[in-house]
User: Which sequence fits this backbone?
């Protein structure tokens, strides 16, 4: 899964209000906390999970193993909700 480039679903709309990101796609809205918002922003122009994990480790005080496990789970959820899609990069 980590080799694939993922990016925002082109049908998703997002707004940041007072530091919280709200994403709307297919009549479903979710809000993202600080770390979720950080991860979401990394996929705007396309990224791999591995690149996002490195960014998380650099930005937050967390081990690579924990960042990888949490990011993989979070990205899987975003894909299941249709918020992230595979790109042809």
Assistant:
């Amino acid at each position: 899964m980590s080799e694939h480039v993922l990016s925002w679903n082109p049908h998703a709309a997002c707004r940041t209000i007072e530091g919280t990101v709200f994403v709307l796609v297919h009549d479903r809205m979710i809000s993202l906390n600080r770390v979720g918002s950080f991860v979401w922003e990394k996929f705007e122009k396309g990224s791999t999970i591995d690149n996002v994990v490195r960014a998380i480790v650099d930005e937050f005080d967390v081990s690579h193993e924990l960042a990888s496990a949490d990011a993989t789970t979070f990205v899987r959820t975003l894909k299941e909700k249709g918020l992230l899609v595979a790109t042809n990069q």
Observations:
- The mean pLDDT is 91.
- The helical segments are 34-42, 49-59, 64-80.
- The two ends are 15 Å apart (CA to CA).
